[in-house]
């Protein structure tokens, strides 16, 4: 059966493989269909497409930073939405992604300054030396600076101790309302999948009722098999998807050495990919 991994990151955002290295690593790992889904950017599409080896297919996508009600009486929560096969030149998409990359830059600088003010050996200049121009900046970049400064031993430890969403140093960014992001990706001919909706170890998650509601507003699918999902949550999501006509996917959410999950650690069924492709009219799945 074809090996399909629909959620991976490159150095266009917070992964550690360049887009070309990502494609090569996926090929070496036996991946037949790879999606490149950097945070709030399509900046890696071209270089990934340029090196696609014969026999491998590339699904061009992005992971959109969004905000959603939780379905409980509490403040909204930050969520991630995967968009696939949308027109990357659609004006609403380019504008919103540019806005979010600016948000990311300002916010990462603020987190860094807060930590520096508390005596941590980090500064804005050294953190941003790890974020080449045009890159979508994220906390993993600061995590690497903390590792380099000897504050923590790993990116994981940086998140567990200092960079998690409940940390005193955390600074939110102004994410896109998830219903608006779904509409925007659909307007651009793409299809959407709610990324790791029940990744509880990252913090608060939405109620299933929120996913059901989004299914009625054009959401295409849910990521079920994801490294941060417990078995019982995968079962819950599979039932929910069946009930509401959502496609179910499985993906590694590979970030190179910023995370420990290897490519193809979780996979999507060929029929699910077909279903997603059938719902999209923006750009084609690329063949070499
Ligand atoms: P940001 O995009 O700045 O909000 O940071 C979130 C990113 O940090 C996610 O996309 C992950 O790549 C990464 N991340 C979140 N939690 C962890 C963790 N425990 N270990 C390593 N990376 C993480
Ligand atoms: Fe990430
Ligand atoms: Fe994510
Ligand atoms: Zn991701």
Description:
With 288 residues, the protein is an alpha/beta fold. It has helices at 19-28, 45-50, 91-117, 124-128, 139-148, 155-163, 178-187, 208-215, 231-244, 270-278, and strands spanning 4-5, 33-39, 57-68, 77-84, 176-177, 191-194, 221-225, 247-250, 286-287. Strands 1, 2, 3, 4, 5, 6, 7, 8 and 9 form a 9-stranded mixed β-sheet that branches. Strand 6, helix 8 (208-215) and strand 7 (221-225) form a beta-alpha-beta unit. It is globular. The protein starts with a strand and ends with a strand. The mean pLDDT is 98.
Describe the secondary-structure layout.
Blueprint: E1 4-5, H1 19-28, E2 33-39, H2 45-50, E3 57-68, E4 77-84, H3 91-117, H4 124-128, H5 139-148, H6 155-163, E5 176-177, H7 178-187, E6 191-194, H8 208-215, E7 221-225, H9 231-244, E8 247-250, H10 270-278, E9 286-287
Helix pairs in contact: 5-6, 8-9
This protein binds adenosine monophosphate (AMP), fe (iii) ion (2 copies) and zinc ion.
Q: What structural class is derived from the secondary structure elements?
A: alpha/beta
Which percent range fits the helix content?
A: 25-40%
* Helix/strand order: EHEHEEHHHHEHEHEHEHE
**Number of helical segments?**
10
Radius of gyration, taken over Cα atoms and rounded to an integer in Å? 18 Å
Question: What general outline do the C-alpha atoms trace?
Answer: globular
- Bound heterogens, unique: adenosine monophosphate, fe (iii) ion, zinc ion
Largest sheet: 9 strands, mixed
Distance between the termini: 20 Å
Strand content: 15-25%
Question: What is the subunit arrangement here?
Answer: single chain
Number of strands: 9
Mean pLDDT: 98
Identify low-pLDDT runs. Answer: none
């Amino acid at each position: 059966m074809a090996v399909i991994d629909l959620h991976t990151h490159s150095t266009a955002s917070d992964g550690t493989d360049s887009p070309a290295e990502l494609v090569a690593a996926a090929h070496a790992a036996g991946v037949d269909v790879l999606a490149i889904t950097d945070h709030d950017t399509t900046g890696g599409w071209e270089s990934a497409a340029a090196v696609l080896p014969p026999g491998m297919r590339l699904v061009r996508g992005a992971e959109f930073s969004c905000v959603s009600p939780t379905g409980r009486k509490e403040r909204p929560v930050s969520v991630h939405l995967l968009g696939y096969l949308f027109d990357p030149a659609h004006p609403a998409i380019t504008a919103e992604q540019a806005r979010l990359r600016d948000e990311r830059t300002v916010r990462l600088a603020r987190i860094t300054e807060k930590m520096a003010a508390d005596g941590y050996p980090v500064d804005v200049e050294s953190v941003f030396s790890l974020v080449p121009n045009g890159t979508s900046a994220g906390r993993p970049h600061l995590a690497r600076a903390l590792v380099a400064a000897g504050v923590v031993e790993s990116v994981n430890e940086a998140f567990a101790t200092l960079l998690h969403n409940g940390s005193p140093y955390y600074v939110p960014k102004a994410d896109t309302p998830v219903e608006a992001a779904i509409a925007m990706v659909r307007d651009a001919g793409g299809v959407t999948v709610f990324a790791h909706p029940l990744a509880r170890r990252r913090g608060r998650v939405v109620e299933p009722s929120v996913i059901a509601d989004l299914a009625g507003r054009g959401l295409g699918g849910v990521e079920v098999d994801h490294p941060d999902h417990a078995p019982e949550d995968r079962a819950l999501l599979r039932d929910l998807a069946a009930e509401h006509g959502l496609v179910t996917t499985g993906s590694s959410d590979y970030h190179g050495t910023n995370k420990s999950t290897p490519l193809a650690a979780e996979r999507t069924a060929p029929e699910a990919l077909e279903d997603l492709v059938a719902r999209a009219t923006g750009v084609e799945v690329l063949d070499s």
